[in-house]
Amino acid sequence: MNDTVNNKSQFIRLTRSQRIQHIILMISTTLLIITGFMLQADRWFISVLGNASEAVFWWRGFIHRVAGVVVTVICVYHLIYVVVSKEGRSWFLDMLPRVKDIVDAWQNIMYMLGFRKERPQMDRFFYLEKLEYWSVYFGMFVVIVTGTMMWTEYLWPKFYIDVAGAFHLGEATLAALAIIVGHIFSVHYNPHVYPMNRAFIDGMISEDLMKEEHRLWYEREMNKKENQQNGVDDNAK
Fold it and tell me: What does the DSSP 8-state code read for residue 33?
């Protein structure tokens, strides 16, 4: 599970399948946010487009629906992935909330406030990553259901469509803020990895970063590697 670049060990953080899923989700979600919030544009902005406004907003709706279908497909695929594949089940089990996450959160707050000398030792995924992961499940469920209702509005009473629209916009706003303020900052503007964490591109994490942010996972991987080497040595004898 590790490689060496410039005499420094690196470990696999994201597999090829996980990176592809992330990129598809990233692109489709970005398109949904942009084309979705275009409906909230002020009248003056639309008037700037002039005669092209009708065509622009037709394409806005088309792209929004295509991106919505892509998001739905990738979410369904991910659910199948975590059930069927070995690496998917490993991912899912490591993402399950545990009592340790509550302890880690409390200890990390105490560390940041100066009441604790050391950060808690984190595993493969720490509490904020798990919170973000499970919030995607909840958020996608809301926007997919409400988006489907609005797409088939002729099947529903107006009251239901109004409620669906409110939930759709509210969840989309919350998701956009979580991505911009939370995910992008913690992943790309984190001082340890600035200007970019390249794990979503090459899938690798450096040994130094793994020790600092995922100490328990690092120790487990090193023990696994040592046991494998010992097994090879025993067989050689």
Answer: H
Which CATH number does the domain housing residue 46 bear?
1.20.950.20
Residue 81: inside a domain: yes
pTM to 2 decimals? Answer: 0.85
Residue 237 lies in a domain: no
Instruction: State the total domains in the chain.
Output: 1
For residues 211 and 209, give the distance between their C-alpha atoms in angstroms, rounded to a whole number: 5
Which residues form the domain of 191? 2-229
Q: Would you say residue 224 lies in a domain?
A: yes
Length of the chain in residues, anyone? 237
Residuewise pLDDT in 10s, the chain (237 residues):
555 544 468 899 999 999 999 999 999 999 999 999 988 877 777 778 888 888 888 899 999 999 999 999 999 999 999 999 999 999 999 999 999 999 999 999 999 999 999 999 999 999 999 999 999 999 999 999 999 999 999 999 999 999 999 999 999 999 999 888 778 877 777 777 777 788 889 999 989 889 988 999 999 989 988 887 777 566 555
d(CA 11, CA 214): 11
In a domain, 57, yes or no: yes
Q: Which residues pair with 11 in a beta bridge?
A: 2, 205
